[in-house]
Amino acid sequence: MGMKCSFSLLFLILFFSRADALFGHALLHCQFTSPDDFLYLEQIFFNKVLQIQYNSTLGKYTGYTEKTKEIAEGLNKNPKFIKEEKKNELKCKNNIALIFDVFLKPDLHLEPSVRVRSVQAAGSRHPGMLVCSVHYFFPKPIRVTWLRNGKEVTSDVTSTEKLSNGDWHYQIHSYLEFTPVPGEKITCMVEHAHLMKPKLCEWDPRTDRESENNKIAVGTAGLLLGLVFFVAGLIYYKKKTYVHTTSWDVLSLRLQWRQSSYSDGLCCSLLGGRPRKHHQNTGAVTLPSRDKTHTCLIRDWYKHTQTEDVCTQPALPTRGKHCTQKHNCV
């Protein structure tokens, strides 16, 4: 069944009296579903009550009150009035083709986009559920029905409201709860003003399986990619943390008295440690004291810690004195 379209002309008639006013209007109505299927109506109302009308299907006037029934009978007997109405019918029919060509010519941008797919049936008494999604249609009126083996389904069907996309287009979703039967043909049928004939979209279980497989493949690929990035980030983090936080152990320090022709002094030497890459980031400082006890500080710039070694200067130093961590010279 196609969509019904119509155009109307409205005439207002006002009658005033001292007590109150009477309001009347006449309506010329041309309703059609195709260029060859149309209905022409002329209706006259007083105070919102239909008094008399002409119907092109009946080909005569019909009155709805005692007075207008007499008037309608007189009009039906007058060939001039009937002939005039036939002319109006012809005008209605001739304008339908123009309306179809200008306003209702199919447009790919306005034709509904239809898709049928299976969804999870949550809380349903049936094991399966299909959804027919209709997008990008205008104007708003539309009819969506389900067919099982060519017969319309009237039960276990729910539908959303016609939802606006905000760009003059609409969308609607119709759901069908069903129990799968081998070899059964399930179709979603859409009827709209921009469709010259109903649009049929058949459900194909193979498409659903392919779509599900694609989702699994995409999900797996995304998971693997995420795992690769995680491992790479973990390696980078560990490497960076190792460089910045690993403290090296001092194996031994050497605090040695040296004499030269220029001056005498103490030399604090790092004999060993691990890891070796930290050697260039350490500093050795010799701190003298009044009792001729000197402290050698080894500072680790990464962890802001220090290791110290204490050595007492001999009275007559003749050779280097060796120190171990936290011990005096031997």
From TrEMBL:
<dbReference type="GO" id="GO:0019882">
    <property type="term" value="P:antigen processing and presentation"/>
</dbReference>
<feature type="domain" description="Ig-like">
    <location>
        <begin position="106"/>
        <end position="192"/>
    </location>
</feature>
<keyword id="KW-0472">Membrane</keyword>
<dbReference type="InterPro" id="IPR007110">
    <property type="entry name" value="Ig-like_dom"/>
</dbReference>
<dbReference type="InterPro" id="IPR036179">
    <property type="entry name" value="Ig-like_dom_sf"/>
</dbReference>
<feature type="signal peptide">
    <location>
        <begin position="1"/>
        <end position="21"/>
    </location>
</feature>
<protein>
    <submittedName>
        <fullName>H-2 class II histocompatibility antigen, E-S beta chain-like</fullName>
    </submittedName>
</protein>
<dbReference type="Pfam" id="PF07654">
    <property type="entry name" value="C1-set"/>
</dbReference>
<dbReference type="InterPro" id="IPR013783">
    <property type="entry name" value="Ig-like_fold"/>
</dbReference>
<keyword id="KW-1133">Transmembrane helix</keyword>
<keyword id="KW-0812">Transmembrane</keyword>
<keyword id="KW-0325">Glycoprotein</keyword>
<dbReference type="GO" id="GO:0006955">
    <property type="term" value="P:immune response"/>
</dbReference>
<dbReference type="InterPro" id="IPR050160">
    <property type="entry name" value="MHC/Immunoglobulin"/>
</dbReference>
<dbReference type="Pfam" id="PF00969">
    <property type="entry name" value="MHC_II_beta"/>
</dbReference>
<dbReference type="InterPro" id="IPR003597">
    <property type="entry name" value="Ig_C1-set"/>
</dbReference>
<dbReference type="GO" id="GO:0042613">
    <property type="term" value="C:MHC class II protein complex"/>
</dbReference>
<keyword id="KW-1015">Disulfide bond</keyword>
<feature type="transmembrane region" description="Helical">
    <location>
        <begin position="216"/>
        <end position="237"/>
    </location>
</feature>
<dbReference type="InterPro" id="IPR000353">
    <property type="entry name" value="MHC_II_b_N"/>
</dbReference>
<dbReference type="InterPro" id="IPR011162">
    <property type="entry name" value="MHC_I/II-like_Ag-recog"/>
</dbReference>
<dbReference type="InterPro" id="IPR014745">
    <property type="entry name" value="MHC_II_a/b_N"/>
</dbReference>
<keyword id="KW-0732">Signal</keyword>
